[in-house]
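Pinned message: reference record for Cadherin-13
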Amino acid sequence: MQPRTPLTLCVLLSQVLLVTSADDLECTPGFQRKVLHIHQPAEFIEDQPVLNLTFNDCKGNEKLHYEVSSPHFKVNSDGTLVALRNITAVGRTLFVHARTPHAEDMAELVIVGGKDIQGSLQDIFKFARTSPVPRQKRSIVVSPILIPENQRQPFPRDVGKVVDSDRPEGSKFRLTGKGVDQDPKGTFRINENTGSVSVTRTLDRETIATYQLYVETTDASGKTLEGPVPLEVIVIDQNDNRPIFREGPYIGHVMEGSPTGTTVMRMTAFDADDPATDNALLRYNIRQQTPDKPSPNMFYIDPEKGDIVTVVSPALLDRETLENPKYELIIEAQDMAGLDVGLTGTATATIVIDDKNDHSPKFTKKEVSPRIVFQGPCV
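Predicted structure (tokens):
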């Protein structure tokens, strides 16, 4: 028999370790890596794989669904993150939420070299990312819980866990605060033995954006042993609100003959979604102008500010030559920074061309014959 070399023994040992790790280690539901790093390229290319995420619910990943915090990306069913279009900047952080009927989890994708852009979820997760896992005066350890709004059945579903490594035998966890024993009561609960925190119903960020809960341990009689320790629940925004114009009617006036670029009025819409995300990042455009003469594009709207300005020469803003000195514009506001996936809202802006004293009086005839009328006999 040929003696085994050290290399052969290493291979066999590796195989044994692999079998042991697969068979003996307990499966932990969720992402295998919670934080991943992406180096900001010159450009993210449409449909080109960026990285692979590994999620396991320990029950086969049936009906696995991914959600990405940026509308510029998606995660395929195999866990591959790809861009939906060519894009050069996406911010410093992306968040990917994965769920199945049995488990859900959140992964953070850090863009190394990325620049801050409006619409990222950086502000939402600032506390969760920058604050270390707080360790209280004794042994209760908690970290912020992040829950997307508008989750569907089934409920209850586990959303986090409290750890107490020094908890006395027979002691129990107790959860209190708004959403537990205060209105809206029963929204959250904790497994008194394991410390698992679960949500029992759909959350609405526009109603309540954060919940401040408290965790403590008690003895068999209900006496507090440790705590209470604060536990923050942050509701992640989804794009579930359309932009609305709340300040109408919108009527603007501009003097005839005004210079090109004259500001007429400002149109601003409101979006109830989180203003720190693209869900409430609005872009404006003019959908229709009536009448469409003497030019179909008499006005322009700043896509970010909503300012309506004149874009034609002063000569075309002549009230005396216009068929109708009043224009109606259909203004559209679209969230998601104007992407096709964004929700829209519309309003009508009425613009009146005001008259100015720009015409001198004129006689209709060049010559006038005097007419003498005698009222009686001359004396």
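Pinned by admin. Summary line: The helical segments are 6-24, 126-130.
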